[in-house]
């Protein structure tokens, strides 16, 4: 089955991104329930490999991870965009978590892409069924390209199955793993 490991977005961040998506008038908008930050795309993974990965993820030392949107971008080119994304600050903790997940996935026998980690949340997709309107996309990026959020603590990550349908991918949570939270300091 197609699978991936992703940070689950905190509710405050989901709401901010959903409000942002309401201004996007082109592409196939990603459903709010499907917004996430992929740590590792596992591709077609067998049950045994997913079990081994799950075992590693349940014992993985948790580190505090915060998510902060630092602006919008397109993946692909201006003339042939594939995605509109919200870029996420590439903090040392997030990069460390990504590396831990990829090491665990490879140890479970999964062959992962070796692309550079570019933390982001996909807001919309373009393709044969959802062509880009260049003017609408340019207007959206001009109006909202500088979109940012404060850092928000992520509370969990999950192992997900992904099923492709004619209406886009559908995700099913296979397991959820808590993340450590940054310490709370008293004010004053």
Describe the structure in your own words.
Helix 2 (about 45-60) crosses helix 3 (about 90-105). The protein has helices at about 10-20, 45-60, 90-105, 135-145, and strands at about 1-10, 30, 35-45, 65, 70-75, 80-90, 120-125, 150-155, 155-165, 170-180. By secondary structure, it is an alpha+beta fold. The longest helix is centred in the middle third of the chain and has 16 residues, at about 90-105. Strand 5 (about 70-75) and strand 6 form a beta hairpin. The radius of gyration is 17 Å and the shape is globular. The strands form three sheets. Strands 3-1-9-10 form a four-stranded antiparallel sheet, covered by helices on one side. It has a four-stranded antiparallel sheet with strand order 2-7-6-5, with no helix packed on it. Residues about 185-188 have low confidence and may be disordered. It starts with a strand and ends in a 10-residue tail after the last strand. It has a single domain (about 1-165), classed as Cyclic Phosphodiesterase, Chain: A (Alpha-Beta Complex), CATH 3.90.1140.10. It has four helices and ten strands; from the N terminus they run E-H-E-E-H-E-E-E-H-E-H-E-E-E.
Could you spell the SSE succession in H and E letters? EHEEHEEEHEHEEE
**On the 0-100 scale, what is the average pLDDT?**
92
Cα gyration radius (Å): 17 Å
In CATH, the topology is named Cyclic Phosphodiesterase, Chain: A
Brief characterization of the structure:
It contains four helices and ten strands. It is an alpha+beta fold and 188 residues long. The chain has a single domain (2-166), classed as Cyclic Phosphodiesterase, Chain: A (Alpha-Beta Complex).
